[in-house]
Here is the input.
Amino acid sequence: MRRLAVGNRGRARSLRLLGIGLVGLLLACEGDGSGGEGLIIRNDPDPGCAPAGRDFPSGLAVLSPEVSRAALVQTRPPDVRVYGLDADAPTLLSVVNIGLDSDGDGIPDTEAIEPILGPFRSPVMGEIQAVSDEIALVSTSDYEQVLVVDPRTGRPVEVTIEVPSGIPPGRHPLLPAPGTSATRTGLSTLACVSPPDPVDSEGDPIGVEPACSADAPSFLTTLTAGKAVVGGRLFVATSNLIPRTSRYAPGTVLVFDWEEGPNGIVVRPSVDTPMLWTSVFNPTGLVAFRTPGGRELALVTGTGAIGFGSGASNIRTESAIDVIDPSVPRIVASIPLGLAGPSFDAPAVEPGGRLAFLGASSQRRIYAIDLRALDTPALHARSGPPVVLDGMTLGFEDARVFTADRPLELPRRGDGRASGACEGNTDVTTNALGTQAFVTDFCDGTLTRLRFDLEGSPPVPYAPERFSIAGQSSPFAPNDDFGQLSAPGLVLARPGIPGVDFTSPDLLVLAGQPNAQLCAFRIESDRD
Amino acid sequence: MIRCVARLVLASFLVGLPSAGTGAESSSARAGGESEPRAGGPAAADLRDRDVEEIVVYGIRPGRLAPIPGASTDVIFTDDYRAESKSLADLLSETEGVRIRRFGGAGDRSEVSIRGSSPSQVVVAIDGVKANSVLTGGIDLSRVCLPLLERIEVTRGAGSLKLGSGAVGGVVNLVTRSTEQGPETRAAFSAGAFETWEGSILHAGEVGRLDYSLGYCGFATEGDFEFARPTDRFGGVDAAFVPDSATRINNDREQHGATLGLGLPLAGGELRFTDFAVFSSGGEPGTDSDNTANAGQSAEARSRDFSNLAQLRWEGPSPTGWGEALEVLAYHRFERTSFRDPQARFRPPIDLRARLMTQGLRVTDVWSPDALGTHHELELQADLAHDVLRATDQIGRERPRAAASLRDALRLFDDRLVLSAGARLDWVDGFDPQILPSAGLVIEPLPWIRIRGQAGRAYRVPNFDELFHPDQGFIRGNPDLSPEDAWNFDLGLELELARAGPFSRIRLRGSLFRREIDESIVWVLINSTTLAPVNVGEATIQGFEVSASIDLGRYLRLSANHTQIDSERASSGKRLPGQPEEETFARLRIGREEAWKIVGEVHRVGEQLVSEGGSRILPARTVWNASASLNWVEIPWAPSPDWARAIWLYVEVDNLTDEAVRDSLSFPQPGRQASAGLEVSW
Here is the structure.
């Protein structure tokens, strides 16, 4: 062992101290990636499109021509994005993240839900419906609620939630206690419910949810879906997928009183009719409309139980459209569609309220129902179970136009690039004049124009001959054409008359692959 | 704070000895470079100062792959990076044409691609035997402990002739330590950011006629680094997560690796047994995807895996007299993996376990006949292997495979011209046999200049996951997949000058490459809810690589490389994702290599597309690293034990400017991190 010379010891001691300090300083430096310019993701969208985030956006609402904006909901990050619609491509104006306390109850969402559903829950964004140009409703799941936002800006809107004292304690675990009220930006749709027919979509009995009941079959609602404000009420569908399974519990539509006044919006869970039970499993889309006779009604799509996949084999149970009379409230009628597997979006009602279209979640087709059948006074004057409008109930008309047994099939993509393994997934919207419908197909990437003639007073239901394919374009690639803009989903026609109320593109389509984009098309709108 | 105090205590111990000064020159130290190019042609001028011990060599040293004439290759000696906090992924990422994609920090998954390939298109071998998972096709580089390796051989755009399916991008061969460098023992220990601890001990020696080497490597980390979350920007509008930063949770990892090597002269040759085992266990936080305080990470998902590769190899003169060198290799690879997530969102809890086994036999015969006035080097090889999969979520699978290959190399004009041609007939059960031809050319008109070219066909059979992933609704396999099919072309120029003025060991290289690939296998959304692999159309990847290395005296070495890659999918004209268009690395080492060194590195990675044809682009980044190392033994006035050959102390800081780094949009990497360590050899 070599010995240190005396003359070097002092130098060694001071250098040692320096070394300790240096190493300590270095080792204490654990960075957090906050240096530099940050992790800024640049977006370079396709022509005519604007970036819409990472994954398939969960919803889109289009506002009036006076506002000329659209509000889009994205899941990652969870936010509401507002686009201007005056240019040839949508223009991103603002993005508002829902934050850690989305409902404004003063408690972070994950902390609020943990005592009920366990840890690691947070809102998963769903659909958006515009009640007006100033108010839109956004569904979230996992943390079941309906958020209230201003679709012109994306910012949350406070509403007053009053829980009547007649509401049983524990029915709405995340609403204020019965007899109290609170100001919130989100309305909890987590509810304890006990179905009258406690059987799931596989035919097995529904168990007891300890958080809801000691002995009665019960469950907590899940998968908040479509909603609509009509007749002074708010209706919210919950699909009730049983957690961590592919089974569904009986579907519900939660009922709230909705009051808009000079002091803002007041929402109250209904005491008399807290929920409606749908006639089939998996209620999804919900839309309010006015019949030709002026009656305000709501339609809720019962998609039925479906699996992961494509084609007829993916559809497990029957589907139907339930008709809600908000004045009661009650489900007054059910229009069976068979094993149709309609799309999860709200039915597309033509402006005159005569006809509603639905897309298909697993096949390349669309369905339609004749809404004139709902103007029958006897339908609303009676009580009891819903009337089945399939032509088999005496005194009531058959409202079915296109169903699983006689769908309106769409043509395949005609340029030789039709999708291989995907059998169809369509969404549909109608134009403002009530003469055309526009249908996207997720698989083929096509946009099909459908012409329909509802003029005159033909018998109910409209004959299939009144519908014809007017044309098809392929603005997107097939879903398996890797690397190209594809997977169109939700399609919406702008309110107003193209070329009269606005001259910018009149049709909006959400495309999901390879990155989400909101694309605009001129179909009936003229250029300046 | 507790973490910082603990490190201060450790730091005090490490530097509790008299501080650095200049030291006397140590004896017989190797003055090797950071990487040694091997063009595979005539032996290049050996620029390394080395006391050469006479070793009788039959064919190629065990574990190493024979250089492929004309191919672009690199050999990285791990000892050139001793006393630096380097991982296998680090060394590969600093090599031109090689891209490392990381999914986190130390202990987190990292994958290799070569010249724009996917990770499953690179064969990673251990001592010449393919180590890629037959389930997923890839390999996690974080499972390989660098101290257990002696060298890393990188072959770009070639390797199918020797290793068959999977070498579309190339080959990375990891050679474990042996007794070649003589008896030695070395131990190392380091501590670093995020409670990362690493230690290794290696011993090589001889007992009579038996030589042996033993190695152990342990690693543990909490991995709980803070990270900045991405912000989408368009038209001046930002979309960001709340909060805008988060901490990695459930990211701990514990890992143990070991090697064993035994060699014994037998029947005129050498019988060698090697074993490489790794055990790893830790958390799997998943992606950062949410608004919550834990950013949507999984707090309970865990993984555990154990793998072992055993090889028994005899190498010596052919006992039949047919051929000059015969190698017979039998190997067994075993892997057991498990993944559990009791809190999987929107789906039932996950509990998956799988066992993978591969048994194989390889026979290689080499002889050097003279025919037609020319000297040939012929190599004939035959392979048999059998893969087995047993998993809890699917039925068992088995897949036999076989191959035979022949390569001939002609050496002309005093080895100034080497022509090589060969072909491999490769068969995998369930697929048609494939012929994989290749050809190479090396021209060395002067000792300091080399021109090389190489072309060859490569293919990749789909792995078990791609073919047979169980149908879980949202994801499934595709048994109708066809193999990927590619042609690689490569042309290069290399200059090596021992000295030019004040500069020495000057190395300049440039390569042009092109790959044409068809039937690439990619996972796509085949309907609105289901992900499955499909064969997609043709794609082209081409580019160039340049590298340079130069010494100035004994105290300064500068090396740098740059890779430019242009890729295009024929059907869309779009660029392939996950690969930056350009990547540059530079390294400056100051100091006398055997005594002390200060190293500075800069690594610039260009923008990357997040997904193919997509509109979202990860930003370019520049990362700076610095380290300082000192060999205590070389300090003349410092007390040190006589038995020690070297006692290295080092400190390193990576990502000095604390950049936010991601190779994948959903997997963060740590920012600035420091480490300190100690390496002793005797």
User: Anything to note?
Assistant: Helices of chain A lie at 6-27, 109-117, 377-381. Residues 1-6 of chain A have pLDDT under 50 and may be disordered. The longest strand of chain A covers residues 252-261. Chain A touches chain B through 97 residues (CB under 8 Å).
